[in-house]
Amino acid sequence: MRSPWTGTIVEIYFDTHPHWVMDYGCYAMTLRCRGSLPLAIQEKLKEIGLSLKGIAPASPDAVALRRKHFAVLDHALDAATGSCPFAERKAAQAMSDLLADYDFDGLCFDHWVVMPNHLHLITAPLELTCAQAFRTHWSRFKALSAKHINQLQQTKGGFWQASWYDRWIRNETEHKSWQQYLQQNPIKAGLHDWNYKK
Got the DSSP string for 136-170? Predict the structure, then answer.
């Protein structure tokens, strides 16, 4: 069986931050619900994103800015001051069940945590041929999962924020670190009896 740590870079594309598209790799993803962040935090994240433009994606400055972006995002999401559709435990359980069964064109999840206003996901190794394939996988997942939760909650309209945070996981040590992060995230956010994770 092929190791996910031996994939090669297919493409790097940029929207709010650089996305590394691999021919075979695992990803840590954060998807947030629409309306989950205050405007001031959104502006701060845009600022960081603009600073990333024009910097080589693998440079130390770019790495530091991406870490700052994730830290600002994660702290604000854990404060849960905006829209929190998964605070309703029925919705959190439904999303966790969907993640357990989801397998569409090779996109499936080895680990996840459903938080009140966002998801943290670790994918199984994903084969990709181009950036468009990467975007298509996530657009499809967001559409299907939004439809599922909207039906459950009898709501309509946009559910997910358009952008997302992703990190190509470089090696086994980093993979284990992300797993630990997902396991600890509810505790860090004060959700001590939160079981919507794997």
Answer: HHHHHHHHHHHHHHHHHHT--S--B-S--EEEE--
